[in-house]
Design a protein that fits this description.
The chain is α/β, with parallel strands linked by helices. The chain folds into 2 domains: 129 residues, P-loop containing nucleotide triphosphate hydrolases (Rossmann fold, 3-Layer(aba) Sandwich); 42 residues, no CATH class. 28% of the residues lie in helices and 24% in strands. The strands form 2 sheets. Strands 2-5-1-6-7-8 form a 6-stranded parallel β-sheet, with helices on both faces. The radius of gyration is 18 Å and the shape is globular. GO terms for molecular function: GTP binding. Pfam families: MobB. It comes from Planococcus glaciei. This is Molybdopterin-guanine dinucleotide biosynthesis protein B.
Length: 173
């Protein structure tokens, strides 16, 4: 099996991460690549579970450490995990035999990143992250000594992603 490529999409709340993830997933799928997606639920609380009373939530309520449901070609796993262990989540994602794994969030991880920036203030924190491959800015934000692409320049973003998928983008900025 060929190595699975991993790309992170990072930025602060409402910077367009989920929208970009969806566009990249669609582009990869259109080019014949299979994608696994991982998202860090950065909002307070836990991600939404199926309705109470379903078998899978009853298993969890009874004390199961995990609950896995299969039906109609879909596997749904609920697992109590006190720590955000990205490497474990990546191993889970590999069960789908993807060509690519796209990760929304987990800013501190060292994988290649697309960083979405809404302001100079965002960049002061995000600019210190490792392995930045592309910086996408909103509303004409200008960053000194940093190459950027405007969020509205869909063509440039698509070109970067295609080159990255094909292995032509190796260096971080």
């Amino acid at each position: 099996m060929e190595a699975v490529k991993i790309l992170q999409i990072v930025g602060f709340k409402n910077s367009g991460k989920t929208t970009l993830m969806n566009r990249l997933i669609e582009r990869a799928q259109t080019s014949g690549r299979k994608v696994s997606a991982i998202k860090h639920h950065g909002h307070s609380g836990i991600p939404e579970l199926p309705p109470k009373g379903t078998d899978s939530t009853q298993f969890l309520a009874s004390g199961a450490a995990s609950s896995l449901v299969y039906g109609g070609g879909l596997v749904q796993l609920h697992l109590e995990e006190p720590e955000a262990d990205l490497e474990k989540f990546i191993r889970f994602s590999l069960l789908a035999n993807p060509d690519l794994i796209l990760i929304e969030g987990f800013k501190g991880a060292g994988y290649p990143k697309i960083v979405l920036v809404r302001s100079q203030e965002d960049w002061r924190e995000l600019g210190a992250l490792s392995n930045i491959q592309l910086v996408i800015v909103h509303d004409g934000v200008k960053l000194e000594n940093t190459a950027t692409v405007d969020a509205g320049n869909i063509e440039a973003i698509a070109r970067f992603f295609t080159e990255w998928m094909e292995g032509e983008v190796d260096e971080s900025i």
